[in-house]
Structures
1.
Amino acid sequence: MTAIAAYRTAILALLSDATNVIFSADNVDQALRWALAEYSLRRPLIRTYSYSVDETTAVHVMPADFVTRHIVRVEIWNSDPDAITERPFYAYIRDEQWQIETMVAVEAGEVLQISYSAVHQVDGLDSAAGTTIPTADETLLQTGAAGRAALMRALDRIETINMNKDVVVMYKALGDQYLMTFAEILSIREGVIFSPVPDFPGIVF
């Protein structure tokens, strides 16, 4: 089973629609795209890009196929690994291409190691090859997608004359509940966890 198939199955289970009677695959996929975008904003996938400097300059124009939301860090790499240094920078988009100003000119022949954020992907969704979501966060992403799908359903049916209003309210409540859980867990800051030193009982003579 591909990752997208497993995600669809899990999302539909959360929506109590295992056989796609109410939610189509397109509905589920669109909701998953939204959840992926939100997840990527809070917990971005950090990748690196090596850019060879051809001429001594402080302004570096990235190739047109360099796509990102944020540039996180810029380092100067050369043949001496001990001489790798982080550089202050200013990054912006001009004429649809990223430009990085390193304040101080970088010598020709050196390499910029650029750390940047990328959008996470699920294998099989929009032709993605491979899944970047940590296993521990799969259920979280599926919950966010299910919440978004439920709200989409409520919005789609709110003006339907023969639609039971209680059903609309149910989907709205379900969507709100799932999305609240999604947002709360996403807001938890990831980082190193320290355990306090346990108290040792004193020696009794």
2.
Amino acid sequence: MNYDLLSELLLAGVTFGICRREFRSRAALALGNAVIGCAALLGALIFAGVAAADGPHRLLSLLAACAALPLIAAGLRWQDGALTRRMPAALRFFLIACALCLLMVEVFQLAWWAEAIPALSAALILITAVQSRNVFAVFGALLLIACFGLSLAQLTFYPLDADQQLHILMSSSLFLLAASHPAGSRPALNPDQ
């Protein structure tokens, strides 16, 4: 059994589920999760034997880390803003973040950008979750920090490999962050309340 393929499909399923759930109420979370889900689907295609998906997967994974994750962080932090609630605003943020990411990583060759932006996004998510005092949100944010920390330290827990561990932890984290409030209710991650 191809566990790499299953972990990619798990991440895609969770993120597309979040996208479907949040599409009408929280555009930033919906769009950010959709991008991560598309990257995961491309990864699943690679593990299913479609070698042509490798280049698009690497690009979309970079944009998921440096544009989609900051969009999710901003959506969780400023929940009453236009960025969070309106798809055109979320899309503009995403496109500007993509352009900045490609400029920094591909043009200026600043590889650290691809690690710094997800780390800062995860830190903002954690700060917001702690301020909200929501147990699900805090646990989800801690899982996200652990996900990136273990990847950077190149530590894995048997029987998972690095990719499987990343996908499972990220799936769990995003699920908990999205589940930190019931659908259609006032968001629970508002630190200003």
3.
Amino acid sequence: MDLQLSAVLGAVFGSLAAACAFFISYHEYKNNWNFRGSAAMMALRSAGVAFAFFFLAALALGVVFQMVAAPDVR
């Protein structure tokens, strides 16, 4: 698997995960929690973590797939 393809897939699925994390977190922060601070900022932080996780996981899997698929040259 090409690393560029892994980066694109990581960006696409990371964006989807970030959007879901934002809406879920924002709803929970807005309705159920008593806290100081902005619900939107806390939800953005959750979205950033979700994006980073999925993007880095896709890159790591791309590297692993390249290592497995590469011929063993000695």
4.
Amino acid sequence: MNTLTIDIETEPDSKLADLFTSRIKAPKIYKDIEKIKAYVEEKKADLTKQMSVDVDFCSIKCIGVKENDEPAKIVTLEELLAIISNHVDVKSEMASEYQNRALNWRVVTFNGKHFDCPIITRQALKNGITAPYKWLKEATKRYDTGKHIDLMEFIGDGEYKSLDTYTQIYLGEEPKPEIDFVTCSQEELETHCLNDVELTYKLYNKFKPLM
């Protein structure tokens, strides 16, 4: 089985910041005006983190991809979608020999069913980019490993542990250096992303006997 390991890093979609903040409301149990104001201000202060993990309000800042044992590389969204389409999007029942071989490709991620794939899909839709949308949607089905192995789902089975934790336990890796996603440079972010792709692929190979 050929593998396409993917990881993305995100940031707030600056065009949607005003819309996002306009939706911040205090719970109805809050009656005091000052407490309501304090609640809203607190939520606004955490705007970057909230928007960065919201599939509708974030923007992709960095994409790492690894084809089988090839070194991980940084690609654009358009390049990633072309790679996915070339490898895994079989367009008809009369598929060519090349397309039938594509059935032997599987996407590998860590939390890709809830994060990477939905964000890739929404980002493509926002920008009017041609993409294998039906495949991307089907790749988010829970516990379906035919198209996509989400290692967080497969290993954790409902219990959350981070990629860093699993790689320390099963691969003997050192803890990853801390990174400030708000202040880091693009180069630092890309290095972090590529490292995550390589670790995800190593973890996939460790658990392959169970698949």
